[in-house]
Design a protein that fits this description.
The protein has helices at 10-15, 29-44, 75-85, 114-144, 163-172, 190-196, 199-209, 222-231, 243-253, 270-274, 285-288, and strands at residues 59-66, 70-71, 90-93, 100-101, 105-113, 151-153, 186-188, 215-219, 235-239, 258-262, 280-282, 295-299. The protein is of the alpha/beta class. The protein folds into two domains: 29-141 and 291-299, Alpha-Beta Complex (Aldehyde Oxidoreductase, domain 3), CATH 3.90.1170.20; 142-288, TIM Barrel. The radius of gyration is 22 Å and the shape is elongated. Residues 1-24 have low confidence and may be disordered. It is built from eleven helices and twelve strands. The longest helix has 31 residues, at 114-144. The strands form three sheets. It has a six-stranded parallel β-sheet with strand order 6-11-10-9-8-7. It has a four-stranded antiparallel β-sheet with strand order 3-5-1-12, with helices on one face. Helix 2 packs across helix 3, helix 3 runs antiparallel to helix 4 (114-144) and helix 4 packs across helix 5.
């Protein structure tokens, strides 16, 4: 999977600094299949010795119920879990990914061979509860800054092995994807600057080697912000900027370079940050601190 953000000139970067999108709205089949295969291998191992107690020809009708207010995410992984176990399992969804759901709401029904349904229950629900938790937390942040014009970005602070899945869940929650990994966008941070010698040197090398990638520079001062802009960066990450410094950054560069606030921003303080006029706010809280949504599978 390759997610590319194309960029060419300073003028183009200025005009389109808010339009760069890293990621896409749906995961590829290969990603979903790999995630599910790994999860089933962990859980099933050499075989489900408990499900084997059920008659081989037994069939089950089940319902998946949400027990709390949430945003649904994870259908592709849920479906693939049962597809890999037994393609004869039928799943009927009543809710789309990205939809708000409430307590005691049925989200889908399953019908098929009992052994496979029982074997896949926990793995499928693990995906659903974790990704719905990610989407739900993202929606809370998105709602908190509604009307400000700012957008919520995720980070690379994801659960191991679930990078693409959680990035998808962020989109379901109304957020936007930052870079997927280290390969699809350039983010020049403090240690990169030190190793390269300066912000201009780091940006020049990036422009020379990989001009097609989104180029962002992390800055801690207004002087560094000036350097990043003059060097040709398309976006700056304003790291732990106080509110007044954020306002000054917006005053100087709004509409000329993408402005991303990050660092120490929590749900109860994020609106003040958004109201400074920054374009983006990135937070690891929506992926690394996810609380699973309560789902249960009820058998008829």
């Amino acid at each position: 999977m390759v997610y590319r953000c194309c960029s060419r000139s300073r003028a183009s970067a200025q005009r389109n600094s808010r339009t760069f999108r890293v990621g896409r709205p749906k995961p590829t089949e290969a990603v979903v299949q790999t995630d599910v295969r790994r999860a089933l291998s962990e859980d099933v191992g050499s075989g489900d010795c408990t499900a084997a107690l059920v008659p081989a020809d037994a069939r089950l009708d089940t319902r998946v119920i949400c027990r709390e207010t949430a945003v649904l995410a994870g259908r592709p992984w849920f479906d693939e879990t049962f597809r890999q176990l037994d393609c004869k399992i039928a799943i009927e969804w009543s809710v789309d990914d990205g939809a708000a759901i409430g307590p005691d709401q049925e989200v889908c029904r399953l019908h098929g061979p009992a052994r496979a349904v029982l074997t896949g229950e926990r793995t499928a629900l693990n995906f659903l509860q974790t990704l719905s938790g990610t989407a739900t937390r993202t929606r809370e942040y998105v709602d908190a800054i509604a009307g400000t014009g700012a957008e919520i970005l995720d980070t690379r602070k994801t659960l191991p092995g679930l990078r693409h899945a959680q990035k998808y869940a962020v989109l379901c929650g109304g957020g936007r994807n930052h870079r997927i990994g280290l390969w699809d966008a350039i983010l020049v941070k403090e240690n990169h600057i030190a190793a390269a010698g300066s912000i201009p040197a780091a940006v020049a090398r990036a422009r020379q080697d990989q001009p097609e990638l989104l180029l962002e520079v992390e800055v801690e001062t207004l002087a560094q912000l000036d350097q990043a802009f003059e060097s040709g960066a398309q976006r700056v990450l304003l790291d732990n900027f106080p509110i007044e410094r954020l306002r000054e950054a917006v005053k100087r560069y709004k509409g000329r370079i993408g402005l991303e606030a990050s660092g120490g921003i929590e749900l109860d303080t994020i609106r003040v940050v958004a109201e400074t006029g920054v374009d983006f706010i990135s937070t690891g809280d929506i992926t690394k601190s996810v609380r699973a949504v309560d789902f249960s599978m009820r058998f008829a």
